[in-house]
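User: Please work through this fold.
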Amino acid sequence: MTRIIPPTFITQSEEQLDKGYDPKWRGDSCDFLRPYYRQMLISLVLMIIVTRAAVSGPYFVKLANR
């Protein structure tokens, strides 16, 4: 009979993955992103504009077919 032995990464404890919310991580990421606030805001506005433009195309075709 063949015995199957799972790899060690499967049998290791998942303690790090089960770690809950860490408020220090949020503060660190906010500190990292603070200098890029303007670029992030511009990107968000442009993404909204591009998304609306992509969705409006089929809507205008619908209006033209009436």
In short: The mean pLDDT is 83.
